[in-house]
Structure formats: structure tokens, C-alpha cells
Amino acid sequence: MRHLLDTKDLSREEAIQILDIAESMTDATGKEIKKFPTLRGLTVANLFFEDSTRTRISFEAAAKRLSADVITFSAKGSSVSKGESLKDTAQTLEAIGADAIVIRHGSSGAAYRLAETDWIDAAIVNAGDGTHAHPTQALLDAFTLRRELAAIKGESSLGQGLDGAKVVIVGDILHSRVARSNVWLLNILGAEVTLVAPPTLMPHSVQGWPVKVTHDFDEALATEPDAVMMLRVQAERMHGAFFPSPSEYSRRWGLTPARHASMKPGAIVMHPGPMNRGLEISSVAADAPNSRVLNQVSAGVAVRMAVLYLVLAGDTTDTQKA
């Protein structure tokens, strides 16, 4: 695997391979020595043009656990604020020695731009581009759900997809790169996806997606999904009134205590974070025993270790070196 730009580009076999390698990374990091020499001598540059906490720190931890050197670049306070282009910034990082560039950018397609031009030779990992894609978030979500379903069945998750699983994704679909990447990955892995949102926050292109669509959250919950994934309302991307009021949004599309109580036994609550408590999700749901929000964060390190391993150490299932 040369780059990771979008889950839409992955085959089922490739997706399962990443998840399986992440499983081995999880098992390995549970040991006393948590660092491995797999990427020793290689350099990973985190190129973040947008603010991030979970994704940036997770990629840093993943690279360091594989013994890579890490360069973290933030656009704020850098030459970007003086007008430096994406091309010049990327070429500067490669000249310093970057073998892989993890990029988060506000413009959709920025990661593809780096990967598909002859500007640089480094491997590119998309850490979120505009409203387009966030593949590692979708992979860690699938990893979390796959583990949960396997535990219920008392089986190993290795080699498994998500065949037959029902997932409801609720909230600001319009502005969510997480939703888009999850839709394609979950479909590839065999899950049934239902999207729930106000009409104003459902993209027109959804008609071409492999999903069911409804504006009624309670109707979606009545189908007894295995997982309910709440999305953050991205106010920073909104330049108009997309819903009447925060209280109205919470009443109709929030995971309230009452809706949480109506979920089927064994179903889990997910959220990519950061959470707007009291808006899209109540504290009762966020902190409940069936909440897997922190599990998702933990899974992020293992999944990103697997991705960096594949783009830098070669496309192989032999993870004994890790």
C-alpha cells in the first residue's frame, strides 16, 4: 500500500488486512515494552493545517511506538501564514527527510493533490481533508465495532468483516468527512448503514451512496441497530441557519437519555469526538457502560500504527517484525 487517501479506494481484503494488523499492534502494545524497531531510521511528518487533538496525538504516538522519527508541523505560526504553498511546504518536509507525510487540510482533495503530483515521493496518509474523507477514523470505528461484535459472539475478530451489522450514523452528515469515510468502509465490510439527519444537513449526493436515509431518529432506532454513531455538529463550517435552535436539534436528533434507554441490549454508542454534550449527545449516553468513545480513541493508535507500517514497511501480512 503506497498511500491511504480514502476508504473508498480500499478493497474488502485490504480493509480487513489493516484491521487484522491493528489487532496485532494492539496485542503487542499490551506488553511491557511498547516500542518496536519496525520503522527505525524513517521519518513521519505530521502536516496539520487544521486544529486537531486526537488525530494528531494518535499519529504521533503510532509513529513513535514503531520507532520512527516524528516531525510535527502546524500551519499556525509557520511559513504558511506568510503565504507558502502546499507544494513548497511538502517539498520542504521531504527535503528535511520525511518518508511519509500525514496531512490534515481544510480543502477537500488536498491529500490526493500531494499523492498524485510529482511534487514529492513520500507516502501520503490522509488525516482528514475538508468534508471529503477521514479514512483512519473510519478504520478505527470499524475496528472498535468489529471487536465488539466478535466479543458478543465469543469469536476472534481476525479475518472478519462486519457482515450483517446494522449501524446508524446520526447528525451533521453534510459537513462530515467521518460519515463519508464510514459509509464506504462499512459497506465494503458488509454492514448495513442508515443515515439520520435534518434535511438541511443531509447532502444531495447521498442518493448515490449505499445507505438508507431517514430524518426520523426514533424510526432508525426501532430497527435495533448494533451501533449508534453520533456526529458533532460542525458549527465552524456552517454559515447559515441549518436547524431552528440547539434545543430543537437535541430534541429531534440528539441521543437523549430516553433514546439511549431505547437502544437494544448489547448495542454500543460511538462518537468520533470532540463531543458537544447536551447537543448531539447527552452525558448519560456519553458516559454509559455501552459507550465506546474512549475505546475508539485507544483503537486509533493501533490502526494508525498498522497504516504507517503498511505504507512504509511494505504491503505484507507478516507482522512479526512489529
Automatic annotation (TrEMBL):
Coiled-coil annotated residue ranges, if any: none
Pathway note: Pyrimidine metabolism; UMP biosynthesis via de novo pathway; (S)-dihydroorotate from bicarbonate: step 2/3
Aspartate/ornithine carbamoyltransferase carbamoyl-P binding domain residues: 2-146
UniProt-listed Enzyme Commission number(s): 2.1.3.2
Residues annotated for carbamoyl phosphate binding in this entry: 54-55, 104, 134, 137, 273-274
UniProt binding sites for L-aspartate: 82, 177, 232
Aspartate/ornithine carbamoyltransferase Asp/Orn-binding domain ranges (all copies): 164-310
Catalytic activity: carbamoyl phosphate + L-aspartate = N-carbamoyl-L-aspartate + phosphate + H(+)
Domain of life, source organism: Bacteria
Keywords, in A-Z order: Pyrimidine biosynthesis, Transferase
Pfam family, one: OTCace
Annotated InterPro entries: Asp/Orn_carbamoyltranf_P-bd (IPR006132), Asp/Orn_carbamoylTrfase (IPR006130), Asp/Orn_carbamoylTrfase_sf (IPR036901), Asp_carbamoyltransf (IPR002082), Asp_carbamoyltransf_Asp/Orn-bd (IPR006131)
Function: Catalyzes the condensation of carbamoyl phosphate and aspartate to form carbamoyl aspartate and inorganic phosphate, the committed step in the de novo pyrimidine nucleotide biosynthesis pathway.
PANTHER family xrefs: ASPARTATE CARBAMOYLTRANSFERASE, ORNITHINE CARBAMOYLTRANSFERASE, MITOCHONDRIAL
Family per similarity comment: Belongs to the aspartate/ornithine carbamoyltransferase superfamily. ATCase family.
Complex and partners: Heterododecamer (2C3:3R2) of six catalytic PyrB chains organized as two trimers (C3), and six regulatory PyrI chains organized as three dimers (R2).
Protein name: Aspartate carbamoyltransferase
Species this chain originates from: Pseudoglutamicibacter cumminsii
